[in-house]
Amino acid sequence: MTVKDRTQEFHAIIDSIASRSGPSSALPIEKVRLLNQPSTATLITTKSEFAKAAAQIGREINTTVTKLQKLTLLAKRKSLFDDRPVEINELIYIIKQDIAKINNQIAQLSAYLRKNGAAAALAPAGSTAPPSAAAKANRQIQEHSTNVITSLQSKLAVTSNEFKNILEIRTQNMKDQKERRDQYSFAPQQGGGGLLGMGGSQGGGLLGSSDSPLYNPERRNTPAPTPDL
C-alpha cells in the first residue's frame, strides 16, 4: 500500500478554517487570560508603596531608639543635684506616643499587605497549570514583605522592652532619692546648741553664763561699796 503525503492538504484546511473564523474568535479567550493575571505595573506600584511605608517606619523606630538612649543616660543618674525630672518626663511621654504610633503603622501596613498581596500571590484553587511569571513574582514580593513586617515588629518589641526596663530603673532611682532627701531633712543635729548652748548644766559657757564679764561688761567698772564708818 502506497502512503500519500497530505501535509500540504492539512495546512490548506487549517488556513481555510482560520480565514473563515477570523482573528476575533480567539480574542475573548485571550482577554480573559490576560485579565485573570495581575499586571506588572500593579505589582510594581504595590511593591513601591509598601517599600516606602516600611522604610518610613524603620526610620521612626531608629529615631525612637535614639530618644530612648538619651532617656537611659538621664534616668540612670543617681545624684540628687544632677537630676532632670522635667526633661525625663517629657522624653517618657514622647517615647510612649512614638511606640503607640509605630505599632499602629505596622498594623496598617500588615492590613495593606493582606488586602493587596494575598489575592494575587496564590494560583487559582484546583489549578494544575504552572503559575505565571507574574504570580511567581507576586508571591516572592509577598514573602519578602511578610519578612519585612516581622522584622519591624521584632525591632519595636525590643524597643518597647528596653523602654519598660528604663521606666523601672527610673522608678527605683526616684525611691532612692526620696529616701536620701528624707535622711538629710530629718538628721539630728550634733553638738547640742553650739556656742550659745554651752552654758547649760556644765556651770558656765562663754556666752551662756550671766556671771561672765563678757556677758555683763558694766560689772567690771562698778566699784565695790565702802562700809559706813
Automatic annotation (TrEMBL):
InterPro entries per the UniProt record, alphabetical: SNARE, Syntaxin-5_N
Biased composition (Gly residues): 190-207
Domain spans labelled Syntaxin-5 N-terminal Sly1p-binding: 1-20
Bias (Basic and acidic residues): 174-183
GO biological process: vesicle-mediated transport
GO annotation, cellular component aspect: membrane
Pfam families according to UniProt: Syntaxin-5_N
Protein name: Cis-Golgi t-SNARE syntaxin
Species of provenance: Rhizophlyctis rosea
Annotated gene: SED5_2
